[in-house]
Amino acid sequence: MTFKTSCIAGFILILGAAVFPFLCSGTEPLRSQPVQQAFPSLMESIQFKTNIQYCNVNIPLEHQDIKERLEKEMLLAVWDRPQVILWMKRAGKYFPHVEDILHHHGLPLDLKYVPLIESALRPHAGSAKGAVGYWQFLKSTGKRHGLRIDSQVDERRNIFKSTHAACDYIKALKTQFGSYLLALSAYNMGEYGLKGEIELQKSNDFFSLYLPLETQRYIFKLICAKLILENPASYGFFLEKSDLYPVFAFDRVTFTSGAELPISFIAQVAGLPFKTIKDYNPELRGYYLGKGKRHILVPKGTAKGFNDRFSAYYKHWKKTANTKFHTVKRGENLTGIAKAYQISLFSLLKSNNLSVNGKIYPGDRLLIE
Questions:
Q1: d(CA 204, CA 196)
Q2: Which letter does DSSP use for residue 112 in this model?
Q3: Distances (CA, A) of 249 to 153, 166, 174, 302, 346
Q4: Fewer CB in 10 Å around end: N or C, the chain?
């Protein structure tokens, strides 16, 4: 080893010795922040000093296995500090609405942590199994509980409708299994799978059941989210109210159309960017709205005059819109159809919610704009 290399190695060792205690304790090197905002050690985060309840169920931490499982999830949660900060900020935006709906259904407010764990409160979250939205509904389950899911609308991404659907589902599971912990286990693994495990294991106590590992962890993740968000300072999170995302505030506009309307048309009427309409209505898929009566959310304070403008714009649009339909014939393909109408393939695909590899069949009707 050369003298220069030796010096560099020595410097790295000294630097490591200075930083290592902070990494182990979970405490940031002190800068200019107040001393009380240095976050606690990881060991402090798992010193559970009070009785813990979730959905009014006592968590029996006197059992070593249960204590270990909760400690594991808490350590993993507080270590992922960026994720917890995003939890807290998004909770400020959506929890007031979720709490109102839970209260309307007479359900425990602790259930608000379900979409936090399921999707981190992201409307477009998706899983490898096909679950989508805030509450991570599968398509079949969502439809069974009244959600519209098709090529134009996916209400699993609507915070209000998906939360109502989740409440209906959880109430049904609670009736079937007799406890919220089992209801949430069924929510995670499916009611048929849980019913089979209960029958085989001759037990209906969540803490005694041997369930799939993901489901075993699920309830403890919910408990940890509750503990952290109810007392964030104890875990080293010092966010002010101004740090949270503002509560989702909106106006609702209603209109009726006899034909499919481009979302860009609604954006023009509202005086808003296309992106804003999509962000406020994440359930909308593609670039068009189906005909009939529709309800759209817009930013608070922007609905004034919408109905008058819509009537005027709609009359003009009906006269000037160059929109037609093409019925697919045998042997035709998307590229050829686009060339025939002198439009881009991209425009044809987006107008009809198709992908480049999408298949068309004789008799299909394609929207041409």
A1: 11
A2: G
A3: 21, 22, 32, 11, 34
A4: N
Structure token pair of residue 288: 């068009």
Exposure string over 206-236, b if 16+ CB within 10 A, otherwise e: beebebeeebbbbbbbbbbbbbbbeebebbb
Q: Provide the residue-wise pLDDT of the chain in tens; the chain has 369 residues.
A: 554 454 444 444 444 444 444 344 444 444 444 445 566 788 888 888 778 999 999 999 999 999 999 999 999 999 999 999 999 999 999 999 999 999 999 999 999 999 999 999 999 999 999 999 999 999 999 999 999 999 889 999 999 999 999 999 999 999 999 999 999 999 999 999 999 999 999 999 999 999 999 999 999 999 999 999 999 999 999 999 999 999 999 999 999 988 888 899 999 999 999 999 999 999 999 888 888 999 999 999 999 999 999 998 888 877 766 667 788 899 888 888 888 888 888 888 887 878 888 788 988 888 787
Using H for helix, E for strand and C for coil, what is the string for 52-87?
A: CEECCEECCCCCHHHHHHHHHHHHHHHHCHHHHHHH
Alpha carbon 255 to its chain's center = 28
- Let me know: does 149 contact 139? Beta carbons within 8 Å: yes
Q: Where are the domains of the chain?
A: 53-242, 250-310, 325-368
In Å, the largest CA–CA distance within the chain is: 83
Q: Does domain 53-242 have CATH number 3.90.1150.10?
A: no
Domains 250-310 and 325-368 fall in the same CATH topology:
yes
Task: Decide which of 3.40.190, 3.10.350, 3.30.420, 3.30.70 is the CATH code for 250-310.
Answer: 3.10.350
Q: DSSP secondary-structure letter at 344?
A: -
Tokens 């439809």, residue?
143
325-368 maps to CATH 1.10.3720.10: no
